[in-house]
Amino acid sequence: MKQERILFVTGRLAEYSLRQVLDKLAPQVEFEYEICVLNVQVAALMHVPLIKRRLTVPEGIDWVMLPGLCKGDLQVLTEHFGLPFKRGPKDHFDLPEYFGQEGKPPKDLTQFDIEILAEINHAPFLSDAEILQQAEHYRQNGADLIDVGCVPGESWKRAGEVVRMLVEAGHRVSIDSFDRKEVEAAVKNGAELVLSCNHSNLDWVSKLGAEVVAIPDLPSDFDSLHDIVDQLVCAKTPFRIDPILEPIGYGFTASLERYYRARKEFPDVEIMMGIGNLTELTEVDTAGMNVLLAALCQELQIHSVLATEVINWAQSAIKEFDHARRLVKYAIDNQSLPKHIDYQLVMLRDPKLKELGAEALLNLSQQIRDPNYRIFAEQNQLHVMNRDGYWKGTDPYELFDQFQAANPKELDASHAFYLGYEMCKAMTALTLGKQYQQDQPLNWGFLTQTEISAQERRRQEGEEPQCGPR
Question: In the record, which residues are listed under signal peptide (predicted)?
Answer without folding.
Answer: none
